[in-house]
Amino acid sequence: MIPVSVKLAWREINSAWSRFLFLFLCIALGVGAIVAVDLFAVNVEQVILGDTRALLGGDVELSWRRAISDKGRNVLDSLADRNMVLSHVTETAAMATVDSPNPQTPLTKIASQLVELKAIDSAYPLYGRLVVEPDLPTAQLLDSPQSGCSHSPCFGALVQESLLIRLNLTVGSELRIGQASFLITAVLKKEPDKIANGFSLGPRVMISREALKATMLIQIGSRVQERYRMSISDSTSLEPLMGELRGRLSQEGAQVSSFRDAQPRLRRFLDQLNLYLGLIGFTILLVGGIGVACTIQGFLTQKIPIIATLKTLGADSSQIIRLYLTQSLFLGGIGSLLGVLVGVVLHRGLPLLLQGIIPETMPMSPTVAPILRGIVLGILATLAFSLWPLLAIRHVSPALVYRQAVDHSQDINNTQSRLTRWLTFLQHWWNDRAQLMVSIGIMVGVTGLAMWQAHSPALGVFFSGACAVAVLLLLGATGVLYRILRHVPIPQRYLLRHAVKNLQRPGNFTKAMTLAIGIGVMLMTTLTIVQRSLLDLIGNQIPSQAPSFFFIDIQPDQQPQFISVLEQKFPDSPYNLVPVVRSRITAINGQPIDPEAHKGKRNGWYFTREYVLTTSRDLPQDNILTKGNWWDHTKESNPGGATESPSDFPLVSVEEDAAKNLELTLGSTLTLDIQGVAFVAKVASLRQVDWSSFSINFFMIVEPGSFDGAPFTYIATTRVPTNLEVPLQQAIVAVMPNVTAINVGDVLENIGRIFQQLAMGIQALALLCLVTGAVVMIAAISINRYRRLHELAIVKALGGSRKLLMFSLGVEFGVIGAFAGLVGIGLGCLLSWSLLYFFFDLIWNFDLIVLSTGLLLTILLSLMTGFLGTYRLLGFPPLSVLRQE
User: Fold this and answer.
1) Is the residue at 12 inside a domain?
2) How high is the mean pLDDT of the chain?
3) DSSP 8-state secondary structure symbol assigned to residue 199
4) CA distance linking residue 456 with residue 458, whole number of Å
């Protein structure tokens, strides 16, 4: 049997559907805004994280620098059994040679080049796209060619253009690597995961895994890097998986990393992107919630006469609550479903609306979570904000309810002090268990939704608390406004006097509108300031001036020639040239180091690796001293010159992570083997190095003059436009064939593209959130139009002209907009500072132009909302309105 409350609810909706239509549309608009922004935020996250996954080559990477143990194999097998897609990549250095057509050619005349060999499987790449020329399927290019090879076995190979330049080869030429021959089938233009491979020793050559076996290069003791990349499903959480793998492989010498670790420069921004998406989500949650709340409040205000009639006819409070709660939930549910449709349609149209702002490659497919959040929010907001006023009806007599135009809170105990009235209210609220439970439920529900929407429990709780404090401050500020208006001298001009008095009359909307506009402005101000801080930081981090080429093995007598080529043929290209020597650690503080004892340990790489040393008179630009002092400038910077040091040993500055793993402190001594000669140095300082700058950086820098005639070479960096990359390599190889050029321009391009997409996504999200927030606020404020119709009819019946009404409304909305905007901007500045300081770790910047523009737009929006919401009401005949009373 259908309950009476449901029948009455449906009968009222069915008999006056047009009166419910505006309410219905306002709920749909609020939910639609939430869904559209939330869907777009998910798309922004997808495109950014997709690019960062491509940098690593997968979601997670397991890498070994030695043969994989049986336990490691078991871990890999278990991952495959869990339906994770695995890709196996092997990297090693090898010598590529070009066979001479004349078998009598001496071996010394055969062209050769050290290359970075990379063997891939059919699953490569898991993310991103491998760009080759000609653009053919990778499997086809790496397969054994049908013809063109003079030796067997023969396979296809993809090579970088720098190898073709150095060895004077073309596509179709033949190479010899190890025991196998390779036909160059394509030029390798871009590797999506090149940044994960570190610094290259030579041009890249990419082959199949079958071809790698045929080369016979991988033997016991070979220096090889085994990488296993995996793609995980959306249902698999990344952090628990990382913890599991690190625990299971802790003793296996494996390095476990995720796509968030692929590039140090991006790691911080990915964390900040997650926080920003949470901020966007919570902002649109509150803005949409305000819209739905104002809509429901306005709807129930219109129903006060009917509620009074029902109470007069004998209906008890519980029946009335069930009736209008059912009605509100029905409208909220249907409005939420329509809002989802509106949000999806708006989301689909964003590429046209935001053309040029959002990345062209951004996927615009809807996901389930934002849609569910929108529906849940619409229904919960309807429930929460309809229960509160309905519960208040229980304590009001029918006779008092009929006088709905009077704000009773200003009539009852008006002679009491403000403190006494607050204490009375709190006591009444505490004794009313039903209202107390509803209040607690609303607070817990809003906080729970905030934690869900904000992607961060800490951010959700902080933001919820901040907004609760902001509501109290805005209510207090409204009281201050009332007091100011009461003490303002009464204007002599009637129009102005009527407008000022209208702001403080009983039953006005000053408090509700100040609260709605103030919270909205606070959220929009916070969002704008955080967005600008992020964009400023991103703009400073895009490596636009980083080098695009590294040159290694420049001999001392070739230094003038190298400089001459760059300055004469590429005068606009900046360059940097530094001396280096190669070394290995043999002892620390006089204690010999056994490399074998450190193999397989997590920090073993620091003990077994080769260290490239340099000298420097000044602290490099991308380095920060964390301990100790830099040496003085009394020494010559010539690496071949001997100079006495005031210390017993030459001084060395060590990168702080290397010092930590090597257990070095200030005053420790290092013994380094430089081509058979022991070199002892004392640690004078520790440095923090920005490895993501792509400049020439070193783990160890010794003071000038310390090499004392050691066999050194030079490395250099330079930056040239893309169209000059090939001419630069050709010019260097023509006069210095021993010098190796390493192109890192494509790595920079990948990183720059990600930062640009990140900036574009942030801008588009902020713009969309601001626009939808404004639209929702307009709908929320306009819901009181039916009550204004009654007021305007009375004023017109008493002789008020259209000019009077328009002027009065203009002053009312203008003052409320200016006051609420000013308070909201102040609260937004405070909230944005707190977020930037405690969560984003960024500097807050005061921008008077932005804040002034925000205040002006708030006033204009308030005026526009007031006029648009009431302009048509001015044309209603007073008699037709008053007859309904």
Assistant:
1) yes
2) 77
3) S
4) 5
Closest listed residue to residue 834, CA positions, set 436, 390, 467: 467
Could you tell me the residue range of the domain that residue 653 belongs to?
A: 575-718
- The residues pairing with 715 across neighbouring beta strands, listed in sequence order, are 578
Total number of domains in the chain: 4
Q: Which residue, among 125, 221, 118, 196, has the nearest Cα to 160 in the 3D structure? A: 118
Distance from the first to the final alpha carbon of the chain: 36
212 with 236, same domain?
Answer: no
For 502, counting Cβ atoms within 10 Å of its Cβ (0-12 exposed, 13-18 middle, 19+ buried), the class is middle
Separation between Cα atoms, residue 85 and residue 711, nearest integer Å = 48
Specify if 818 maps to a domain. yes
Residue owning tokens 């009404």: 805
Same domain, 321 and 359: yes
Task: Give yes or no for a contact between 284 and 454, defined as CB atoms under 8 angstroms apart.
Answer: no
Judge whether residue 183 has pLDDT over 90.
yes
pLDDT value of position 863? 80
Q: Which amino acid is at 600?
A: G
Q: Flag whether 75 is in a domain.
A: yes
In angstroms, the CA 698 to CA 609 distance is 13
| Range 318-355 burial, b when 16+ CB lie within 10 A, else e | ebbbbbbbbbbebbbebbbbbbbebbbebbeebeeebe
Query: What tokens appear for 529 in the block?
Result: 């300031």
Q: Which residue from 7, 22, 23 is spatially nearest to 323, judged by alpha carbons? A: 7
User: Residue 23: pLDDT above 70?
Assistant: no
In which region does residue 628 sit, left (phi positive, over 0), alpha (psi from -120 to 50) or beta (all else)?
A: left
Whether 632 and 761 map to the same domain: the answer is no
Rounded Cα–Cα distance for residues 38 and 448 (Å): 17
At residue 352, does pLDDT exceed 50?
yes
Rounded distance between C-alpha atoms, residue 203 and residue 207, angstroms: 13
Q: Nearest Cα to 545, choosing from 577, 575, 580?
A: 575
Residues 606 and 638 in one domain: yes
> What's the rounded Cα separation, in Å, for the pair 558 and 571?
18
Question: Domain check: are 398 and 385 in the same one?
Answer: yes
- In tens, the pLDDT along 293-303 reads 666 666 666 67
Task: Retrieve residue 698's tokens.
Answer: 């070193």
Pairing of strands 255-258, 224-231: unpaired
Sign of CA dihedral 258, 259, 262, 266: negative
215-226 confidence digits (pLDDT tens): 998 887 677 888
Residue 392 pLDDT grade (very low, low, confident, very high; cuts 50, 70, 90)? low
Indicate whether 10 and 95 sit together in one domain: no
Please report the pLDDT score of residue 827 as a whole number.
93
Q: 800-812: per-residue pLDDT in tens?
A: 677 777 777 777 7
> Is the pLDDT confidence value at 102 over 60?
no
**Residue 474 falls within a domain, yes or no?**
yes
pLDDT beyond 90 at 471: no
For 629-678, what is each residue's pLDDT tens digit?
A: 998 754 444 444 444 445 578 899 999 989 998 889 999 999 998 878 88
pLDDT score of 739:
82
